[in-house]
Here is the input.
Amino acid sequence: MPDPSDLLLDVRALGKRFGGLVAVREVDLAVRRGSVHAIIGPNGAGKTTAFNCITSFVKPTSGRILLDGERIDGLAPHRIAAHGVARTYQNVRLFANMTAIENVLVGEHLRLRTSFLDIVLRNGRFHREETAARARARDLLDFVGIGPRAGLLARAMPYGDQRRLEIARALATRPRLLMLDEPAAGMNPAEGMALVRLIERIRDDLGVTVLLIEHHMRVVMAISERITVFDRGAVLAEGAPNDIQNDDRVIAAYLGTRSTQEAHAVKLRAEARTA
Amino acid sequence: MNWFGSTTLAASLVVIACAPLRAETLGPVTDELGVVKILKGQPILIGGYASQSGGDTNQGIAELHGAELALKDFGGKVRGFPVKFNTEDAQCTAEGGQTAATKLAANRQLVAVVGPSCSSGARVGAPILWNLGIPSIGIGATAPGLTATDRPAGFKGFLRVVPNDLKSAEFQVDWVRSKLGLGSVATIHDGSPYTEQLVRAFEKDFVAKGGKVVASEAIGPSDNDLRPVLTRIAGRKPDLIFTPVFVSSTGFLLRQKGEVAGLKDTPVLGGEGVFSANIIEAAGPAVIGFRIVGPSTEQFSQRFPSFVKAFETEFGEAPTGGFSAWGYDAMLVALKGGEAVAKADADGNLYIGRKALRDALFATRDLPGLTGKLTCSAEGDCGASIYAIWEFADASPTSFAPGTNPKKVFP
Amino acid sequence: MAPRHERLEALAEWRRQSTWVDGVLLAIRLGVAATILVGFGGSLVAGTYSIGNIASFVVFGLTIGCIYALVALGYTMVYGILRMINFAHGDVMMVGSFGGLFAADALSGAGVLEAAPLLSLPLVVAAGMVVGAGVALGVERIAYRPFLHVRSLAPLICAIGMSFVLQYAARGLFGSRNRAYPGFGWMERTFEVGGLTIPMLQVVAFVAAGVMLAGLLAVVRLTRLGRAMRAVAEDRDAAALVGIDVGRVIVATFAIGGAMAGVAGVLYALVFKQITVFLGFSLGIKGFAAAILGGIGNLPGALVGGLVLGLAEALGPALLLEGFALPAPYQFKDVIGYAMLVMVLIFRPQGLLGERLADKRA
Amino acid sequence: MSSFDIVTSSFRIHRRRGHAVAEAVRAGAFAGAAAIAFALVGAYLIMDRRFVVEDIITLAQTVVLLFVLGGGHAAARSAARDGATAATAIGFGALAGLVAGLLFAAAILLVAHVGLRSHLVAASPMLVRAVTFLGAPGSAVAAAVLVTAGTAAGSVGAAAAMLRADRRTAVLIGLAALLGAGLFRDVFAGLLHNLPGLAALEPMVFGVGGVTPVAAAVIAVGAAGLSLVLHHRRRPPIAASTRRRIEGVLLVVLLVLVPLVTDAFVAQVAMLVGLYVLMAMGLNIELGLAGLVDLGFVAFFAVGAYTMALACSSDPRAAVHLSFWLALPLATTIAAVAGLLFGLPVLRVRGDYLAMATLGLGEIVRVLVVSDAMKPYLGGSQGIIEIARPSLGGWTLDTPLQFYFLALILAALVGLVSWRLQHSRIGRAWLAIREDEDVAQALGIDLVAAKLLAYTVGAAFAGMAGAVFAALIGSVYPHSFQLAISINVLAILVIGGLGSLPGVVVGSLVLIGLPELLREFGEFRYLFYGIALVVTMHLKTEGLWPAVARQEATDA
Here is the structure.
């Protein structure tokens, strides 16, 4: 057990039931400050539900969630964002009819302070803050590598750029914890490696702790300091990448669920088609 | 913001040249408010506004159709000039009346206007018309204030052929208290200014005459299940229910009254608004014994049945609202007035002085209208305010014929 | 009773999680509860109504409630499948009612209606259903089908347009006068139960509504069409992928909803005896409110919603408003219905019987 | 749910086109059915009173003619697409016209000889007389005339279809100009009358009921010619943004100038349009930006109007006696507070449920206002009368035109505020909520606070409109605050284009201005209104002036 003060996110005995279906049961998850932590597991293992519980998209049935020692479970999602948790989504959820830079500017919302009156009067305060926010948004777009496409409508961007834009938008909230839900989905190996470098820079340059769900093992193994394996709503194993790779239970779980993986592949193709 | 600049500029440039009415001489006519000249072969324009859409559609359409029949009966012409009847929808709202009146007034050839159906529209519409020298003859607008002696100057050109609420209420109270000797009543209105005003006037008179109002209820115009409110009334055991609500509501009320314990034999007195064949169909068998207030005159008894027939032939259905006869009379007053003051010149053009027309309308005496002899007071009340109580005796939808069904029971 | 510290803990937990909005909502809850308590208590003290009165209110409420329920069915079905409000539904009902009227007039002219009301009624109802279904199909064709593939408010506006068209076209075609349904022979009688006089036609209407609802439930639960409908309601794209003809299912939904509206129109006329071309608007809104009250997309919910709304309107002024000694309490009949609707939406948005559609709608 | 709302499923139903003959019969049947419906609904008789061209053709005849022309046109186009020659195509047009004429004539004969009136009130002898041009009403001769006319009209429509595109457009524009001049006779007559130097033209151009024959020819030919000239002198196409700007400037010029030079009625209509623009800008914040569907919007309009009434009336119920200029901000503020109070509970409700909740609230307000219980405070059904008109240093605003400019200035102000809000952190938050509520919330946007702000601002704008309304009418009655107003405002937004400020103006012009101009058709104007809603949505699903996607010019 690591030193508690070292933990950024501490999830204890998290449970979530949907009617009769238990999606997550008794899950413990400890994410160390400044680390990259991966959650893997077959489809339907409860990974995204756990994410949704942490960001309060759904209310957990039981358990506690602590961020930096402070309880955040059950808070409204925007208060969780204010606590410094930001996320991306399995199926990209951008504001399709807004431009890239506007998407990022929405992420800046938490930090903008101009009042209603400032806006209506368009006074100096408004202009100063707006200029600064735009500059920061551009920096973030540059940081994720899509700076030149700041003015494009989100829905007009290629899929890979949309993923990056989503990360930029999440970063704009200045999170302490960035949660990425399958960031490499639909990417080829080269793009996957570029993503790995981006995540490393997020951790190293921005000092943001990263928790991600991912299926691409190459990506997972390349960046994660710790890995938690989910299966059927519970934690199956946790450890460093090497330990996980050699864990018999993990291997068994993955072999036993070939069919769901196939289903996943089918789904990915479908996603690629719609995108 | 050039939006801003241009708008303010334009606004500041506006010097409203609302040409004040002034004396004018055209052809053989000199008039202090202006003269309308109608070229030979052109029609004389008379306007009409009434509720043609919205909740009071039935009333308004019946009124305007009544006016059209009057024009037809008059031969469609005044002094050989065809009369054109331009109608506008005033709904039953103040803004509807305002817009419709403004639209009518935009045509400077307009000589006179009949309408509107509602006092709220008249309150706004009549001054708009009269400020341009156009007199208007109200049909269903019954609010007493419109023809009060201290009415604003804008109403000096407003007349009406329908009696005002106070007179009607007075008569009905007289009947209920003095004739029937009933001591307690329940009232129902539907939230419209017309019914509410009538109910209040009735209540006031009734209490003044020593009666007791045991229940003062209200419903919504689209309510269809009135049994709960009738149950409440039944608990107060009134001797009579007074309700001037319109056809649908009256129909529901009469039909459902029988289903409420204790009200089966309580008589109902209705208002002029339902003086139409339509109430028979709406109320079905329950209409028998239902009494309403209506015009009392000989003319009305004699002429109204044939009017209904003519109406049905012309418009496909019998009048659906009670004020069609007053629509007829309003038009008649207007046509008579026009006939009295129009003057032709040597070339065959026609001239109508605006002030002269107004004065002629106000001078209407003993004009045999459909509702009775019309005589206009100095305030513009022309209605033959001689009332009668009528009672329905037959539930067959085709039996509507004032005199037999409904038949006059008082006086 | 839980120990004191546990209650304190629960309170602390609530305070941690809640925002100021929760506080406001709590205050509203308390306010509503207090209003109901005071009103109800006051009404009891006032004692204006006898038990017999209340019983008759229940009968009134159930009768109008079953008509609301039938109208609500159409809304709920269309909403379940398209996630769109069919604004013209009330007017579909009105036209259906006129269809029934013409059939009844014809039967009455032939003398059949008087002689064999039990035989004629199904014919009249069928006429209403056919006309209602036909008009509903027209609405679907014009206001919904062209916009299936876009996400916009266009169908809503088109449906509003169709509502105007139906209303004023009917006015032009049929005239604006009130039309009475002809008499249905022995069904026009009344009977007495425990001192209550109940018109036979109301019982007939109630039973007919029940039969229609049962039939509809059977169709939706048991037939292939019903399965397809449920599949489309669940996920339109997935249903299309597994080979369901979504277009046809939507058409069928409108037709059935329209037929139900037609039935409602005829039953309305049976109970209230007279119809006008403007009856659709207010009844449509009431029906929609009933659908939401019961849980939109939920068929039994439509029934429950309709009956609850009917009862609330009939009983509310007597049991609630009497206590405040307001003048003319029945003027507030609609306020009670709408206030209940708003409360349900705030505190139980899925409706009385509904699933948590609100989550899915995101 | 994905924020990418292009639904991919492909179950649009396409009608297969049949043989040219079948298509022609179909087109003819449609035209005939439309004409019959037009007649039986009673619109024919009403519109038959109005001439388009004085003493030559009435409005009703024009409408029926247009149906048949359209039928012939469609039939010919369809045939031409199948490769028919011009002559054959015209033949198909004639066929369509024949079918339409036969149907119409048959319907009229039916009306004349079978009693349909017990069910169809417009099926009257008057109708039969109105469509009899030769022979006795209901006779075979009269029917034959209709059939012949139909066939001829179908052929003409088909012939027009065979014209070159530019000429076809020219013909269309000529006809439209003529119809517009005839239909809006009063507006144009007023315009001519008031334009310096043109007053003498008025009696030459307009008769009592329509355009004079000579003027009709001039208008139609002139418009068609102008269209041709413009078509052939087209310069290289102007950039879309420039064109929009030009259109925008034209719109402003139109808004300022037209009411100035026409009569009081146009000013009155423009005034109403202005009020609806104010209201629609309010709803635009709620719906267009934040995506909140509000069907109880009229409540705030009512709050504003009643505040103005209670602050400026001589009625004993009036709480205070303020000048209009103080009451206006007061009414706006109180409406905003009302928005806040209503919004607090309802705004956690989502999507269509919100529509219903707000509808309920709006109706509650209306019933409360009309109720006897509130009569001591709000005047009940008799409303509040004698509201003082606004005055500035002894100069009183009382004509519709003056109120129009007041509304215009307020609308410009509100438009500016809207625009500034939209392009700020608040506007971005609203748009984000409209696009995807959950994601917006996860980015730290307090949904309730943001929506509440939208709701409050929207309510304030509506309240301002209500206050001006009360001062203009001089009285307020509960009956002015019907659900129909909320629906109207919603329709304005969608018809104009959601989230688009110029769209709000265009939408109000179309949906408020047109029905007002059609007021003379009384009972039928809402029928036309409904048809206009449906047709507009079919032709322009995104609205007449959609919001531009906000692409920035950093890259190209």
Notes: Chain D is about 70% helix and 0% strand. Chain D has three domains: 3-162, 166-232, 264-482. Strands of chain D lie at 51-53, 57-58, 391-392, 395-396.
